[in-house]
Amino acid sequence: MMLPIENNDTFLLFFHGLDSSNETSKYTCITREPKLCQTVNYRDDFKKVFEIYEALIQEKMQVYPRVVLAGHSLGGWFANHFAYKYNLRALLIAPCIYPSEVLANRIPEMANMKLSFPTSNTEMTRVMVEVDDECLDVAVAKRTLVNLPESWEVEYFERGHHRIARSSEIWSHLLDLCEDPLVWIDTATFYGED
């Protein structure tokens, strides 16, 4: 059995999706520490969310040598936005590519905002997309996620849905992005058996 060793040099900041929280399975499946997912309400004051996330990132960057961002859906857009802005590593799980077009009917404040999806971050970026995602326009993702820097890897999974339930893949990508050391341990030792 492979177990990660706590890596206190890297902080993981996770951004949940629309109408979600820090209870999302995409976050709760992550067993590494230190980590944080701040619950926000994107609908109440969308511009305020930028300020909240900006303050969190700047705070963590002052304390930790490395900050890694991860996010699902609209949170994936935020992870990409701030990873680009601060040149950080990121895991984008079923990211919303153009939220001002896709979500303007649900967040009217977003309609007049130009929310681009930059793809030129030179830091390690991993993207997970389900081919049968009922919310994400996979064709748009395939047109957008091309001609990427070598630091980017995009993985398309057959079938699936927007709630992407691939905890082992999320874990594997984050081990790599966070550079968490691993230790091999046999099952008996893990369970305290002789």
Major sheet description? 6 strands, parallel
Mean pLDDT: 89
Strand order of the largest sheet: 3-2-4-5-6-7
Radius of gyration: 17 Å
Count of helix runs: 7
The end-to-end span amounts to: 16 Å
Helical residue percent band:
25-40%
Principal-axes shape call: globular
Number of strands: 8
What amount of the residues lies in strands? 15-25%
Give the class from helix and strand content and strand pairing: alpha/beta
The low-pLDDT segments are none
Order of helices and strands: EEHEHEHEHEHEHEH
Explain what the structure shows.
- The chain is α/β, with parallel strands linked by helices and 194 residues long.
- The radius of gyration is 17 Å and the shape is globular.
- The model has no long low-confidence stretch (mean pLDDT 89).
- The chain has a six-stranded parallel beta sheet, with helices on both faces. Strands 1-8 form a two-stranded antiparallel sheet.
- The protein has helices at 25-28, 46-63, 74-86, 99-102, 138-144, 167-178, 187-190, and strands spanning 2-4, 10-15, 35-37, 66-72, 89-93, 125-130, 152-157, 182-184.
- The protein contains seven helices and eight strands.
- The protein is 32% helix and 20% strand.
